[in-house]
Amino acid sequence: MSTCFVRHGRTPYSARYLVNGDPGVPVLLDDEGALCARRSRPLVREMGVRACWTSSFPRTRQTADLLLEEISCPRSVDARLDEPDYGMFEGRPFLEYASWLREHGPTARPPGSRESQHEALLRMLEGCAALPAVAAPRIVVAHGFLLSALDWCRSRRPQDELPLFLPEAPYLEPLVVSDRCLLEWVEFLTGEVRRGSGSSEGRGAPPISSEDHRTVLRLPRPVRTPLEENEFDA
């Protein structure tokens, strides 16, 4: 049994590296994002998807509609998969939020926000932990932060600690995880967050790069290798 995680298609906000953590703001896919979602339909059909989950944001639900236009399966919305609440940074450049986060750390709540970065990630992981209880194979259309955290967990080395910033997750690139592996990742990431690994008010965080407005780490993306848990099973 397995879950395919994908980040939603490109939006006018994400193309400009603006943050949107309020599902009431109607941010939808731009033309390129919609086109890429349509082009991904054949891959989704091959997966034999039996259930679909999205966050409560319009862009994830629109992406799911485009991906599953020719597929009949139950679709559910789980607000635990939502983007973090960015508070006063809503609609503003990611670098502004990143600068604040580096100064205050992942356990602090931005002004006007109901949650910290760590609280948001724990919420998302709680939603992920519930997935193995529903029909599979399943597809989850979520946001870049969750996809980046899962991809980091997959590619981490034994000595690595959860960093303050993660490389940007690509749009609509599937990350397929077996149920066993997903629960292991959820447990590991939950432990990392609760221990506050790599946080402590941003101490030791790499410098924010003005050369890339979203991937704020000066790190190459991890090399992807075929893994057994990335094969769909029934």
TrEMBL record:
SUPFAM superfamilies for the chain: Phosphoglycerate mutase-like
Gene3D superfamilies per the UniProt record, alphabetical: Phosphoglycerate mutase-like
Record's protein name: Putative phosphoglycerate mutase
Source organism, top-level taxon: Bacteria
InterPro entries (alphabetical): His_Pase_superF_clade-1, His_PPase_superfam
Protein's organism: Nocardiopsis metallicus
Record GO terms (molecular function): phosphoglycerate mutase activity
Enzyme class: isomerase
